[in-house]
């Protein structure tokens, strides 16, 4: 049975584990240890069910992975081998052996591209990147890979049961990248490297405008531009912030900053922010 991560159940997992049958198998007729029985004397189904049992009842997944791998090795062209391969990918992921999970999932996709579990394999491959996304302060290379893999699930299998979950995770990973830009921008702003800070906040406003970080990015742009004496840009950033996030605490802070200098949120000049504002007014930005 494929018990999908985060409550998602794969097509292969439609049937219930044959735990009772497997327990009887493990017990054996003569009271001996069934694990001593050479696997090549067992059928593909028997080995597969051992893997299921270990997957369900063991804290570690080494044995489950071994059994599923043996099904593939001993019965390579059987339907059980196909099922064992997707279970192998799941077991690797459950064990947090993400590279091996990706490799097994990709082999399934390569060998069975038209199978009903191909969507789950693609989703599992994407999760193997997504679940490795580190804290915001670290390198985000895996986040980009997760976004690409999640996008493939959404685009290639839009009607699958995994598309909705992939879309949600895509949005979260996208927000994560914006958070990375914000962290770096704040670092520069705190150290009065205003131009470097502006470059980071600009990325959030232009490339990550649908994330939760946009309001703060606009406010930090106001702070940075005011520090450089670029009042037109500061007022324009404030105008965009007011247009989209007037109820935000960041807008309240921006308004106080501007009015304290005798300024107001309004479009000034012809900067990149003025172009963004025109897009907002036409409804093309959000």
From TrEMBL:
It comes from the Bacteria. One of its GO terms (cellular component) is Bam protein complex. It is found in: Cell outer membrane. Residues 43-237 form the Outer membrane lipoprotein BamD-like domain. GO terms for biological process: Gram-negative-bacterium-type cell outer membrane assembly; protein insertion into membrane. Keywords: Cell outer membrane, Lipoprotein, Membrane, Palmitate, Signal. InterPro entries: BamD, BamD-like, TPR-like_helical_dom_sf. HAMAP family: OM_assembly_BamD (MF_00922). Part of the Bam complex. Part of the outer membrane protein assembly complex, which is involved in assembly and insertion of beta-barrel proteins into the outer membrane. This is Outer membrane protein assembly factor BamD. It comes from Aliigemmobacter aestuarii.
């Amino acid at each position: 049975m494929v018990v999908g991560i985060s409550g998602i159940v794969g097509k292969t997992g439609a049937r219930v584990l044959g735990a009772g049958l497997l327990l009887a198998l493990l017990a054996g007729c003569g009271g001996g240890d069934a694990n001593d029985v050479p696997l090549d004397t067992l059928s593909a189904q028997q080995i597969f069910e051992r893997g299921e049992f270990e997957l369900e009842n063991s804290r570690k997944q080494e044995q489950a992975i071994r059994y599923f791998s043996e099904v593939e090795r001993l019965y390579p062209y059987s339907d059980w081998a196909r099922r064992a391969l997707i279970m192998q990918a799941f077991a690797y992921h459950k064990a947090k052996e993400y590279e091996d999970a990706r490799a097994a999932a990709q082999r399934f996709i390569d060998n069975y591209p038209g199978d009903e579990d191909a969507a789950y394999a693609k989703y599992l491959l994407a999760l193997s990147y997504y679940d490795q996304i580190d804290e915001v302060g670290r390198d985000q290379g895996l986040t980009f890979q997760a976004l690409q893999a999640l996008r493939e699930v959404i685009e290639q299998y839009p009607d699958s049961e995994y598309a909705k979950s992939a879309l949600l995770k895509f949005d979260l990973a996208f927000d994560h990248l914006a958070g990375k830009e914000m962290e770096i921008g704040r670092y520069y702003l705190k150290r009065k490297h205003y131009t470097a800070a502006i470059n980071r906040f600009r990325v959030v406003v232009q490339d990550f405008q649908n994330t939760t970080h946009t309001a703060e990015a606009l406010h930090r742009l106001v702070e940075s531009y005011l520090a450089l004496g670029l009042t037109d840009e500061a007022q324009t950033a404030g105008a965009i912030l007011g247009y989209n996030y007037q109820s935000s605490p960041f807008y309240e802070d921006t308004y106080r900053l501007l009015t304290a200098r005798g300024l107001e949120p309004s479009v000034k000049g012809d900067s990149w922010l003025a172009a963004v504002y025109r897009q907002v007014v036409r409804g093309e930005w959000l």
